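hey can u check if this looks right to u? its 682 residues, i copy pasted from the old doc so theres a chance i mangled smth
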Amino acid sequence: MQKAIRALNEDPKLAFEEFKKFIMNEEQVEFDIFHLINIKKKNIYIEDLYFILKDTFSQYDLSQIFVYDYVFAKLILQKEFKEAVTFSELINSLDQYTTDLDYSIFKIKKINTTVLFTFSYGNELVEVDISDWLEKAHFENQIIDIEKLENKLVIRGNAFFQGINLINDEDIEHQLIIKDSNNKSKTIQIKRARTNYFNSSRYNYCAGGYEFHINLDDFSNVGNYDVTLETVCYGRVIKSKLKYAINVRKNYQFNNNLTIVNKKLKLNLLHKSHFSFKIEPVSFVNSVIKNVITRSKEKKILISRFFHNPNNSTREKINFAIIIIFIELFGYTIGNRKFTIISEKLADSTNDNGFAFFQYCRESSDASNIYYLLRKDAKNYNEIKKLGNVIPYNGFKHFLFSIFAKTIISTDNVKILIPKELRDISHANLVFIGHGVTLFKKVDHVYHASRGVANQIIVSTDQEKEIFIRHFGYEPNNVFVTGLPRTSYLMNHLTEKVILVMFTWRTEIKSKEDFLQSEFFYRLKGLLLNKELLKKLESNNVSLKVLVHPRMIEYVDLMPKLHNRIILEKLTETDVKQAIENSSMLITDYSSILFDFIYLKKPIIMYGFDYFNANYSVSRDYMNSTLADVFFETEKEVLQRMNKYIEEDFILDQRTYSRYLHLVNSHQNSVNLLYDVLENKM
């Protein structure tokens, strides 16, 4: 997909060749045909798309593409070019985190056997027939939770046609059919259970959510039971198996290894891929023996996997084996302790919100069960160890606490802090604390709820909470507004005039050639060599400190010789907190470090020279209205604003500070709020 996206910016005709390859894979894809008319360098006019699409539609089955691509293509083929442009603009608006639009701008209606996709174009209603597409559209049905309540199983899931918004209850109907070994079937009543789990900026599948209960007393006959969901959506009827979302089945197995029905029967899940079950007679003694044997086999597999990982040392392998044996023998005696593990990135950092919260917890009176996970080779390990409750990464306690922790908190993918071999048997609640405020960079593909990165999210503003609910698929009761914990420990320490420069890395740069030919290099070099800038630094005794991203280190030698007022410093070797506190001003693109400067009421310049060239998350109108005098796209504007701040001795005017407050809460009691959330709401 990345290859195709890059092609969009180079040559639309090449992009369509990539598009055809995706179609031939027979997997449903979202290609974004409509982006072809939004690229900065238009190598093709929208009318020319007609001929390419006509050829593509005649040769390939386009049912694999998502509905928005299909609608756009149909508009082009119908030569409704202005309508296609409007449709494209609406999609792009939906993608933005700050949009006022919602899914209701697109509607689907059924007239007899015809299914129409509709949207407004001026005072007119545009209608596109999607009946053919719907007949072959991909149907998704996944269980997202299984819960045991006394003698009932409660199953919750979501079923929908991918790309069809399901906002209203009448859009879709489900019923459950359970068939026994004798081919006798019965229908189970399904409750509606609206869920955001699969929602995104473009699609809302809430009404596809369902919940049903299996009363084990009603299925006391021994044998296998097959389960099928029958769905009716806009006239199409489809029967489907209930697949498991990420880790749902594994979590159910380890939390409910034995289900007794009237103390004579047991229920087991049958298939790894989809939900079905078996009820069989069993004595209690035999059940326990079989359960022990099953668990022993599972533990043996875990040990084998860990031992065959070449990255694990002999000492780590011995510790792991001891832990597995230990928890099998004594685990249930300590399993109710409320351990909390906190860490950052790959357990190698103490610069961010995770450590700030740990520091707060260690300073409070009741923090005996809160631990910080850190690699022994971290440069400040011995210093941090003095705080107490520091766990060495891949050590004995790390393995033990990963299994029995109540909560694991991280500023990155929380799951990666748990050894891979232990993830299936860890019962921890995974809590993600963002590195910054999610706003300027699209990361919903990384942290979406369906990816299983975390169960609950800590955010800084109500606006950010809404972003995680609407774009990332989280439920409102799993997103908590507290602020950034690290800001509680920020203070100004200004002794010299220093402008800090820090840019986000461009992931498309993968070689020296890419770097030298990139707009990133061109703009950075232009700024650092600007004669007006150098003159201003020299005459006002100001230094410019550039924090070099870890991915840029290998390209530093390609940078030209810089003025002695400009310092290049590796981010990995920098005390970032100290650099923030000691700096007078920040120049960045959209790095999350800007929020720290907001808390300290320092000037910020956002140099977004390429921000609107790619998959941006906020509109130009939003930037111009909310961040006027903060966000700029040209070097000239950046220098003008920087000169103003230098001349005014880096004093931030109240008008600009009021603009900052649209981005983040200004309070610095976030650690207290987070502690209260963990204690009382999780």
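The chain has four domains: 2-129, 139-282, 314-488, 490-660.
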